[in-house]
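Quick check before the chapter quiz. The format below is the same one you will see on the exam, so make sure you can read both the input and the output lines.
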Amino acid sequence: MQIKMNGKRVKVKKGETILDIAKRNGINIPTLCYHPDLKPEGRCRICLVEVNGKLVTSCNTKVEEKMEIFTNTKRVLEARRLNMELILSNITYTRKDFELIKLAKELGIRKIRFKKHVDNSKGRGPIEIDNHRCILCGRCVQVCQNIQGINNIDFVNRGIFTEVTTPFNIPIKDSPCTFCGQCALYCPENAVRERAFSEKLIKYVEDMNLIKNRNKVVIVQTAPAVRASLGEMFGAEPRTLVTGKMVAALRKIGFDKVFDTNFGADMTIMEEANEFVKSIEKNKNLPLITSCCPSWIRFAEETYPFLLKNISTCKSPQQMFGAIAKTYYAKKIGVKPEDLIVVSIVPCIAKKFEAEKPEMKSAGCNDVDIVLTTREIGRMIERKKINFSKLGDGEFDEPLGIPSGGGAIFGATGGVTESVLRVIYEIFTGKKLKKVNFKQVRGFEGIRDTEIEMGNKNIKIAIAHGLGNIRKLIESGEWKRYHFIEMMACPGGCIGGGGQPRPTTWEIRKKRIAALYEQDKKMKIRVASHSPAIKETYKEFLGKPLGKKSEKLLHTKYEKRKPKYF
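Here is the expected output.
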């Protein structure tokens, strides 16, 4: 099939949109609400083109025979400018909104002719919606409804009073929200974001005399997914590992020690692997379901409480690290737990909620004091005027910074499962693992499964990522067929977490995941049980996996939670 675009004949395929064809032929059509992961809805109307004398949105208009398309006529350009002015008149924006400002300049807008109308921010908790900045593109609504299947936010009211909010306008913390943060990840203008006082938390670390106060020791842990994405905020291509530069930047900020959350991931692997072996031997509470994703845990406690007996009691790597830091490490360096400030840098917004749970106080105070997302630490580095790309490579501190490759791949969908398999293989077979890769559990399908033979046992495994896919697996009843299930709330796993750099698309997720597997491949130690730091921690302090001290510090419990909105 052929059409005419800007006077030239172009070959097209049935089902393609005008925007698809323009991109393929190097023709620029500006977009604002469009995102490659989502169904195009043509809300912002910035991508207007002229088709056979009519203005249409190019993102969701499919090509047909005898179409004649013009992408840059005077009528098209004036309509785009008008729509952009109307959007800008309805929000508060700053010079930091690069995408918005760049687009306004591209469209030749120097002055806005319309009176501003803004409304108030909505919600408190790990996430907030700021309708001062919302451009009503609908990305957040789409991802919450169509990908995550939570249906927690939608459009209300009409005309200039239209806004995005929760059911009955209840606070986000009391709503069905799981704090996965995908709404914030897809928002192009930071209207949906980490809670507003996250900036105050950054200021707290920078300016409130914690780092300068010698009575306090401030340490930081960094999650595996952060090193595969932080560089994107400073111009690096996706798939660029910036582990050394990240450590160097954190030292320049002033943290006393820089540790690796992969150590906490290795602890989680050890405890969860032994918990799984125990469940298999007793044939009890199978399948064992992973517990390292706090968004999935909140979802289960409120929506599927019948699964709680199947969920691993292991704390997440962030919380295991905090518990060990406030007890074992604090004692080693002679500091009171309350004088050791533990900061986490994670790709996840739900970790903010997790750190504040009352059961996360192993030493009588919060195991983790401050949680910052990848985006937040990127802004912190910028504010400190650190030239990230010019930094040399720093090294993590010991002993809580010596991880295995198993900990490194925790951030990828299937990574937790593969890490656990590396440990249980040696337990079930009694043989040392030679080939550590279990590629059967890798992939990007939303729900996938496999069966792996280990000694005289066949382990049936399922992996689900994205809350919509988790819901499908549970409600189909298929979950009962397996021995082990990995659940991750965010598409792609932690690598696609709600606190990651924008934009995040499936193409970018895959590149970040590839970076984590590259790091794993280069590691000298690739199995958690082989790590000298893990062995030393158990020998000196914990005793053994699932021992009394491990159970007290590294495990938690769940309960059916009645949502406040009922």
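If your answer matched, good. The radius of gyration is 25 Å.
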